[in-house]
Amino acid sequence: MSAFLGPIHYWLFTKIKFENDLTQNIIEFAKEKAYGLEAVKSVDEVCGVLENGNLEDLIDGMNIHGWLQERVNVVEERLAFITTAILSEDENRLSEILKVAFDFGKKNAYSGDSIEEAYASFNNLMLNGMPCDRVIEIVEESEDNIVLVQTEDIHEKYWTKFMGDVKNYYAIRKSVMAGIFDGGKIEFKPIEGKPSFELRRRV
Fold it and tell me: What is the C-alpha separation between 110 and 136, in angstroms, rounded?
C-alpha cells in the first residue's frame, strides 16, 4: 500500500490526527467537568471515529483522496459537535475550552528561533482542509517575521451543521497556536478581525 502513498499523504494524516487529539483532550475535559455528557456519549455515532493505526494499513488505496477527505470531515465535525454541545449549556465555558487548547499547544511547543521552521511547525500540525485547498497565503516574509492570511473559510460548514459558531473554531485555533509559541523565541500575534496571524522573532 505504501507504494501508492507519498509524503504529502502522511503529512496530511499527521494534521488530521493532531486535530483529533485536540478534540479528544476537549472530550476528556468535558467528562471530568460533566459537561455536554449526551454529546460525549453520542459523538462517535454522530460524527464517526478516526481509526487508530498506520496510514498505509488503513487507507483505501483505490480512493486515497476521498479517504483522506472523509477523515478531514470526521475530525472537523467532532471538534465542532463537542464544542458546540458544551457551549450550548453555558457559553461562558469557552474560556475553559481555550485553556485546554492552549495547554494542548504547549505540549507541541516550538522552541527554535527560525521563522521558516516556526511556520513549518504550525503548517505541519494545524489542519486547513486538503492540500489542494491552499487556503493559507503568505503575504509578508522575512528572516524576522512572516504574515499569513486565510483566504477562504473552509471550517464554517462543519460548525453550521451543528448550529455552532465558527468563531469558536478560530478562538480554539488561536489558543493552540499561542500555546505552541508560548515563551519561545518566536512570538505568535493574531491579526484582529481576520483569520490571519504573524510569527515574529521576540525582541
Answer: 20
Return d(Cα 142, Cα 88) in angstroms, integer: 43
Distance, CA of 75 to chain centre = 9
| 144 alpha-carbon distance from chain centroid | 25
The pTM of this model reads: 0.93
Dump pLDDT digits (tens) for 64-121.
999 999 999 999 999 999 999 999 999 999 999 999 999 999 999 999 999 999 999 8
Three cell numbers written together for 153: 473559510
Answer yes or no: are the C-beta atoms of 198 and 146 closer than 8 Å. Answer: yes
Residues whose CB falls within 8 Å of the CB of residue 190, separated by 6 or more in sequence, listed in order:
174, 177, 196, 197
Q: What is the DSSP string of the chain?
A: -GGG--HHHHHHHHHHHHHHHHHHHHHHHHHHHT-SHHHHHHHHHHH--PPPS-HHHHS-TT-HHHHHHHHHHHHHHHHHHHHHHHHHH-GGGHHHHHHHHHHHHHTT------HHHHHHHHHTTS--S-GGG--EEEEEE-SSEEEEEE-S--SHHHHHHTT--HHHHHHHHHHHHHHHTTTSSEEEEEETTTTEEEEEE--
